Amino acid sequence: MTAGRGALIATAAAATGALDLLAHPHGDTWWHHLAGFDLVYGFLGCAAIVIGSKALGKVWLQRRERFYEDTEE
Amino acid sequence: MTPHPALILFATAVLVGLSRGRVRAGLLLAGTIAALVAAVTLPHGVHWGYAVGDYQLQLLRVDPLSHFFGLIFTLIMAVGALYALHATRAGEHGATLVYAGGALGVVYAGDWVSAFVWWELMSIASLVVVWSGDTDRARAAGFRYLFVHVAGGSLFFAGLAVHLSGGGPLEFGPFGETHGWAYGLILLAVAVNAAIPPFHAWLADAYPEASITGTVFLSAFTTKTAVYVLIRVFPNSDLLLWAGVLMALYGVVYAVLENDIRRLLGYHIISQVGYMVAGVGLGTPLALAGAAAHAFCHILYKALLLMGAGAVMTATGRRKLTELGGVGRQMPVVVALYFVGAFSISGVPLFNGFISKSMIITAAGDEGHGIAELLLTLASVGTFLHTGLKLPYFTFFGPSRGLRPTPVPANMIAAMVVASICCIGLGLAPGWLYARLATTVDYHPYTLDHVAGSLQLLGGTALGFWWLLGTLKGEATESLDTDWFYRKPVPEVMAWLVRAAAATGRLAHAAARWVVQTAAGYAANPLIGVGRLVTGASDGALSPYDENRYRFPIGVTVLWVVLAVGLLSLLIG
Questions:
Q1: Which of A6-10, A22-26, B32-36, B464-468 has the weakest average pLDDT?
Q2: Over pLDDT 90: what percentage of chain B?
């Protein structure tokens, strides 16, 4: 995807962040009262999931295709 | 007599087996819709009760919870039947009908014994559905599925035996405060069917190997029947709360690594069932209602997603992200319908996942489980990342591989349209769903902060996806999971055992041969042994028997004859 689309996504995401300024938070914990928390959490969470899982895959979990079949027969 | 929806499906299975072509298709649709109508109109109460000895069996107990699950099970059976209408094998239709009937049987069972029998029927029929894939991989995965579910069924039976022999009530209901062996064994059996790690690997192993139409049914019944049993029997348990949170994230991690589109969606079944298990673990009215509501919504959108993946496979004959790409332009209707499922599972406002998943996450926050709330939200990020962004991007958009998709049967598209209408309808009118829940809840998903939070989460995830797009493309690999334990060491241990048995056999054969040969020598000539005792000589002791060696010389005979003749001549003369 191009940088232009990235900018479009960023703008749309920032606009949703602005909604927090109008909203009345419901939860008890501190992050419910932090404007834009979910936006940052979504971005960092996404990065953590991708980087963490890929690292786990590389060092441990990923094997060649037919890993089981080639030894079962 | 009130009709039992499961029996309507069994009767349909018989009729489908006896008919052909359009008649069969008509009967399949009519039968499954009849079961749906029966489930909708079932009056509350115990309808099919029988006394067997001291036991009071209840085959059709309708209360708000069983009514709710019966509704979604019969609905998805009808939608799935529409999707599978073009399938020509009567056996596959029969297996799915019996499978759905088994799941309904568990839901409507009012006593433990009936529940167990239906549970096992469901397992056996689902095995046939797995085998409907009709490939070597499907057959092998089916045997592993059988192995796991026989183990699970045995645990259930053992728990049931302990429960009933200990004087526990026959009524299929909560254990209450008694957390003994029966509680543990049955919970373990249900954990196997709910695919709670580490007992989950059968799901990602077997479901993607079934036929394109069969996988849709598999995604609906087994795990959600287990969720129903968890809600009914095991509410409020910290163990289940954290098991659910772990499940939700576990599926997400594996989905990052997965290349097979149906296996990726399979890992997201595990992740989504994690929310339900966490809801059961929380045990508050809102959480339990959320678990049931999420099961209802999940069945619809997950079936829709798998129907979309199935449509892609039907059109292209391919199932891996590394082999797909750029087919969206040729199949825009499938793309649009797939995205209804993807937005639903991702919790986009106005779609059904938003109105049910948020109940569980909110309940976790209300109970002061902030960490669980954050982790479940993180799993939600992963869900949108995979089913809403990664899978559709690399399947429908992304780099084209010059594929030429063939048209998809109209009935498959029609089924996806029906499922989409249900997903959007429930998203727009959550009150309809909430009114049918077993517990009354005062919950309003469409508050501004909640909608804003969800949109931000989705926006943040989309940004992350755009940033990391390069590392997210499919890789032609398989991932190690807990099935490694019975796929790698077990065959090797089995091979070792066979080799050990063969070596023992050869040794025994050699020993027996030596004993027999030695004994044969002595049996032929016992004097060998005597001679050895007397002379102490060992040579010749084992030489073969030679009769000439012990024969009297011919001269002795001649001497006796001469003497006899001489004596005779003296007597006569």
A1: A22-26
A2: 82
Distance CA B245, CA B146 (A): 27
CA distance B305 to B285: 30
Closest CA to B215 of B144, B269, B277, B296: B269
pTM, rounded to two decimals: 0.89
Helix, strand, coil content of chain B in percent (nearest 5) = 75, 5, 25
H or E element, residue B479: strand B477-479
Decide if B478 and A66 are in contact by the 8 Å CB cutoff.
yes
Chain A residue numbers with beta carbons less than 8 Å from the beta carbon of B263 are: none
Q: How far apart are the first and last CA of chain A?
A: 43
* Domain locations in chain B as residue ranges: 1-234, 237-323+332-483, 489-572
Per-residue pLDDT band for B543 (boundaries 50, 70, 90) equals low
* Strands B477-479 and B55-62, bridge-based pairing: unpaired
Largest CA distance in chain A: 63
The pLDDT mean for chain B works out to: 93
Phi, psi dihedrals of residue B59, rounded to the nearest 5°: -90, -20
CA distances from B67 to A60, B106, B124, B227, B541 (A): 45, 12, 24, 15, 89
Question: Which residue type is seen at A71?
Answer: T
The answer, for B463 touching chain A at a CB cutoff of 8 Å, is yes
pLDDT value at A71 more than 90:
no
Using a CB-CB cut-off of 8 Å, the residues of chain A touching B448 are 19, 22-24
Q: From the centroid of its chain, how far is CA B437?
A: 27
φ and ψ at residue A29, rounded to 5 degrees: -75, 160
Partners of residue A27 in chain B, C-beta under 8 Å: 365, 373
Query: Which whole number is the average pLDDT over B122-149?
Result: 95
CA–CA separation, B100 vs B496, rounded Å?
41
pLDDT computed for residue A54 by the predictor: 92
- DSSP classification of residue B169: -
Inter-CA distances, B111 with B16, B159, B290, Å: 31, 14, 25
Give dist(CA B7, CA A14) in Å, integer. Answer: 54
Token pair listed for B288: 């339990």
